[in-house]
Design a protein that fits this description.
heterodimer; A: 736 residues; alpha+beta; C8orf32 fold; six-stranded antiparallel β-sheet; five-stranded antiparallel β-sheet; 27 helices; 19 strands; elongated; disordered N terminus; B: 320 residues; alpha/beta; Rossmann fold; Helicase, Ruva Protein, domain 3; 2 domains; two-stranded antiparallel ribbon; 14% strand
Chain lengths: 736, 320
């Protein structure tokens, strides 16, 4: 090795081995870096403009490649540290206002305990500031053949992302497998061993992929299984309300009939819990932080409002604090907090039986008023609530544009989208979670979904038209048990959309078909009652439904219900603006059909995209297969199986070959039977003597001997040899 | 004849049967005289059937002459013995032209080389020139005296002995000449039982005097032809080649192609002895132990040659 090589300054072939191990090691490092950067790219993608991020990555890689020849590792680490500090400093500079160091530290801590990085307000600045250092260091060390350090640099970053919960299982697994491959190949590279000996690395990697996926197959450990498709909780309520600051869209889901709250209110409302402002393509994130509530009166929304007094009694322990939008005052719950969006939250769980009271100022703008608004939104609102991932396909916007081309105002646009979704997508709880952008999939590939899909899609569609919209979760009004009382069950958990209107603030839209949703829920309660499930009913519920106005509970879920005060005529489907003639036709036919196709029956027809494994799954699967094949080859398992088949079944060919193969079967059989294989330098006669073979074996050997050394064998002799061997191998143990 | 190519086509069973009978009966016959040494007798017979010559390396008095005589007598062949001494001349071996005064012509007086079995005793005592006269006859199966070439009898086998005890004033055979012996054998002392049995048989009345032939010269010749027709298939030729190459790779001087040829010819003879018209690896291995060692020079003693052959047999795979 030359001095330059020893210093790791160049990367020529080592000891005549072409640099293939080097290439493999570099590819593995690159794959690992890619896993890490992919998470960061996802952040950037959520807030748009990935080009600058890509430029930063490219620049880091180029710098690492160039500086690998110039810098010593010590100064490279120093440079990496400086890069990170400068990046973070730049990020802090980008923040509006000057946050205190303490706050930053607390934020960082909360990130490490599983709070997604997406909650960071200026995530773009953060990613751009943080990316260069690990990228540079990883590639620098890989270039210098210091693979362990390279893996440490990339792995540290990936580890951070795992702690924040942003690196999903597939990403983590890919990263770890790549790390193992990088270390393995790197080791081979440094020792100058040829790549063909590196099979073990592949076997190890395959095991790493296979073992975790097998764990879930074993019934006893199913609870620990690593769920690749990301479906954790399985009720609508759990998926919507227990996820804290994040909401990830899931696949099939069920309804919980347990009673959560009893609400006493002067009118039925949607009991709102929280909202999400940042759409990530496969879920929602809330960036806002709540603050403690001091008992003061909160801001009323702009525009006309109407006061609604509510009293909530928790029927089970609750970690949320539902209230009608928009709460202006809360009493009886000292742990009340005020969310960044103006909603209520509770810092401590509300115990079963406890009550709290809320006064809300319900927006009461008439459709006519809303229809008069323009797109002059406050800048902060527009910035936050029209964000879309850069990866959102253009066709979402194009389709929305086409659907709403007749809508003149934001209000008409929202109504059009709402009614289109209501009429053109089936309600079903049994769906397969699509890969990629949920809104895009629901719009173009899926035919059915539940509220999360409807709301996500509507919010996305509105945002493509630059209309501020947000995802809202909470409970629907529930079962009316008295004139002013409603029983709210877990199954009433719901997701809808709030759209911002100039001068009137946030207004609720619900694109989910109400009748289908309600019937799914009613049947769920009935079946739960039949099965005597506890907590399905309160003292009041379960009897005949209180129905002075039976149609009141499942109101058409549009702001139309704001009209009650104004006395205006609700906009019927016929008069809704912006519905294309063909859409209206399809709406009509759908209405004509009986709406029985609800949650009970599966209306899920997964599109082609969702049924195929993702590219990463495919890559991991391929790796698993290749590694398994090599492992099987290495472990002789394949040969054992092959040998068994080979031993018991002999296809016929020419007499010479038949005799030879019969003989080989015999020798293999004798070797196994006597635990004494024939040695290569041993003659057949000597071997047969050594294992004390019987006459049949000797006859086979003699037939084969003539075939091989005298060149004389005929069909009959070959037949005889084959049948003798068949006889021998099938009567185990008698060859002795 | 140096051609060992496969000669296909099964032999007529009588020919193989006759050759096998000749070989077996000659061996039995010789064993009536020589007690013990069964393997060596077999080796001598297979060498003769394979048209080879034998070098016996031994202490005096173990029955070398008796063995050679008995073999010759068994197939009714002629036998002559030459005691090699330092003053022995080539013509003492080959014969000379003698002037006949009556006819006024030169008549050729045959030397001892003109016999079916020639015993060259203590060949390493004669000077190289005389040695080479014998060796030339062995190789060419003919003798040239004063420009006239005369064929030696058919069959023709030389059994040469080397005295390894008295090394004074001896001329060790060069490798090139050693190579011309198909086999080198050691008789060695008989076992105690064999020796006692031998004494009982020999002392009063030596049975060699009453040994009658069990085959004719013509039958022996036919047996030789049968041997040369024995099939050697490609896998065996390759095996022999691998063995030879192994000795070349691991010794200072390995087995020559002539050695490989000799190996296969000896193996052919052994196949006939076993009643087969094709050679199997067992034949080659049995013969390799005596055909190859003296052709190998290792860095130390010649005895190591045998060791190298053993290693080769234990290492070289029979089938690739």
């Amino acid at each position: 090795m030359s001095t330059a090589d020893r210093l790791g300054l160049g990367w020529p072939a080592v000891d005549g081995v072409p640099g293939r191990t080097r290439t493999a090691a570099l590819i593995a490092v690159a794959a690992m870096l890619l896993s890490t950067l992919q998470v960061l790219y996802f952040f950037i993608d959520v807030v748009g403009l990935p080009s600058r991020f890509l430029a930063v990555v490219a620049a880091s890689l180029v710098a690492a490649t160039v500086l690998a020849r110039l810098l010593t590792p010590r100064s490279a680490v120093a440079l990496g540290g400086v890069l990170l500090l400068v990046g973070l400093w730049w990020y802090v500079q980008q923040l509006s206002g000057s946050p205190r160091i303490g706050e930053l530290l607390t934020d960082t801590l909360s990130l490490l305990t599983g709070n997604t990085l997406l909650r960071i307000t200026n995530i773009r600045a953060w990613v751009l500031g943080v990316t260069p250092a690990p990228t540079f260091l990883t590639w620098y060390f890989a270039m210098r053949r210091r693979y362990a350090l390279a893996v440490a640099a990339a792995g540290g970053t990936l580890g951070f992302l795992v702690l924040t919960g942003d690196a999903d299982l597939l990403t983590t697994l890919s990263g770890v497998v790549a790390a193992v491959a990088a270390l393995g190949f790197g080791d081979f590279d440094r020792r100058g061993e040829p790549i063909v000996d590196a099979e073990t690395i592949l076997v190890t990697a395959a095991l790493m992929v296979l073992v975790p996926s097998l764990v879930s197959v074993v019934p006893a450990t199913a609870g620990l299984s690593l769920n690749v498709d990301g479906t954790g909780s399985d009720t609508v309520e759990a998926s919507l309300l227990r996820s804290g600051d994040q909401l990830s869209v899931q696949g099939s889901i069920s309804l919980s009939p347990e009673v959560r709250f009893t609400v006493t209110s002067s009118e039925p409302r949607y009991w709102r819990i929280g909202s999400f402002d940042r759409y990530t393509g496969d879920g929602w994130v809330s960036q806002t932080n709540s603050r403690a509530y001091g008992g003061d009166r909160l801001d009323e929304p702009p525009g006309p409002t109407r006061i609604v007094e509510q009293r909530f009694r928790a029927e089970t322990d609750a970690g949320v604090m539902p209230a009608a939008w928009k709460p202006i005052q809360s009493r009886d719950n000292p742990a009340t907090r005020v969310g960044g969006d103006g909603g209520l939250a509770t810092g401590a769980p509300i115990r079963e039986g406890d009550s709290y009271r809320v006064t809300s100022a319900v927006p009461a703008a008439t459709p006519a008023q809303l229809n008069d608004t323009t797109r002059a939104y406050p800048q902060r609102i527009e910035e936050t609530y029209t964000q879309l991932p850069a990866s959102t396909p253009d066709r979402v916007g194009e389709r929305t544009e086409r659907l709403t081309r007749d809508a003149r105002t934001p209000y008409e646009t929202a109504l059009t989208i709402e009614s289109w979704l209501e009429n053109n997508r089936e309600y079903s709880l049994d769906v397969r979670r699509p890969d990629g952008n949920v809104a895009d999939a629901f719009l173009f590939e899926m035919s059915a979904g539940y509220c999360t899909y409807y709301a996500t899609t509507m919010a996305t569609m509105l945002r493509t038209q630059d209309i501020p919209a947000r995802m809202v979760v909470g409970y629907t009004s529930g079962e009316r048990v008295a004139e002013d009382r409603w029983v709210v069950r877990g199954q009433n958990a719901h997701a809808w959309v709030e759209v911002y209107f100039e001068e009137y603030g946030w207004v609720r839209f619900d694109p989910t078909p109400a009748s289908d949703r309600e019937s799914a829920r009613d049947r769920n309660v009935e079946s739960a009652r039949e099965r005597d499930r506890p907590s399905v009913d309160t003292n009041e519920s379960g009897g005949p439904e209180w129905s002075p106005t039976p149609t009141a509970t499942p109101q058409p879920l549009t702001p139309v219900d704001n009209d009650t005060d104004a006395g205006g005529t609700p906009l019927g489907p016929q008069s809704r603006p912006g519905v294309n003639p063909e859409d209206r036709i399809s709406t009509a036919t759908r209405v004509g059909e009986s709406p029985t196709d609800t949650a009970g029956t599966t209306t899920d027809r997964p599109g082609p995209a969702s049924s195929l494994p993702s590219r990463r799954e495919a890559a991991l699967g391929l790796l698993a297969i290749v590694g398994t094949v090599i492992g099987v080859r290495r472990s002789d398992l394949g040969r054992c199986v092959y040998r068994s088949v080979w031993l018991y079944y002999q296809p016929r060919s020419t007499p010479e070959r038949d005799a030879e193969r019969a003989f080989q079967r015999l020798v293999y059989y004798l070797g196994r039977e006597h635990d004494r294989p024939r040695r290569a330098e041993e003659t057949v006669r000597a071997y047969l003597d050594a294992v004390d073979a019987d006459e049949r074996a000797r006859e086979v050997a003699s037939i084969r001997e003539r075939a091989r050394y005298a060149g004389t064998v005929d069909e009959a002799a070959a037949d005889r040899a084959v049948s003798l061997v068949d006889e021998i191998v099938r009567s185990r143990g008698t060859a002795k | 004849m140096t051609d060992t190519d496969t000669t296909r086509g099964p032999q007529s069973e009588p020919a193989l049967g006759e050759a096998n009978r000749v070989a077996t009966q000659v061996i039995e016959n010789v064993e009536r005289v020589i007690v013990g040494h069964h393997d060596e007798i077999e080796h001598i017979l297979t060498a003769m059937l394979g048209r080879g010559h034998i070098l016996l390396e031994d202490v005096p008095g173990v029955g070398k002459t008796m063995l050679a005589k008995a073999v010759a007598a068994s197939f009714d062949g002629s036998f002559k013995r030459v005691q090699f001494t330092p003053d022995l001349l080539p013509s003492d071996v080959t014969g000379v032209n003698v002037y006949n005064q009556q006819t006024e012509t030169f008549t050729f007086q045959e030397g001892p080389i003109f016999a079916n079995v020639v015993l060259g005793d203590e060949i390493n005592r004669a000077p190289p020139k005389t040695q080479s006269a014998l060796l030339e006859a062995m190789e060419e199966e003919q003798v040239t005296v004063d420009g006239d070439t005369r064929d030696v009898p058919d069959p023709f086998t030389v059994i040469a002995t080397q005295n390894t005890v008295e090394q004074n004033r001896t001329y060790a055979l060069p490798m090139a000449e050693l190579d011309r012996f198909m086999k080198k054998l050691h008789l060695g002392y008989p076992s105690a039982d064999d020796e006692a049995a031998m004494l009982a048989r020999v002392v009063s009345d030596h049975p060699i005097e009453r040994l009658s032939p069990v085959a004719s010269v013509e039958e022996f010749r036919r047996a030789q032809r049968t041997v040369s027709d024995v099939t050697i298939e490609a896998p065996l030729r390759e095996y022999a080649t691998r063995l030879a190459r192994y000795t070349r790779e691991h010794g200072q001087l390995g087995v020559s192609p002539r050695g490989s040829i000799a190996l296969l010819r000896a193996a052919q003879a052994r196949a006939v002895l076993d009643g087969r018209d094709y050679v199997v690896p067992d034949d080659v291995r049995a013969e390799a132990r005596v055909v190859l060692p003296h052709r190998i020079r290792t860095d130390t003693a010649e005895q190591i040659g045998a060791g190298l052959v053993r290693t080769a047999l234990d290492t070289v795979p029979i089938e690739e």
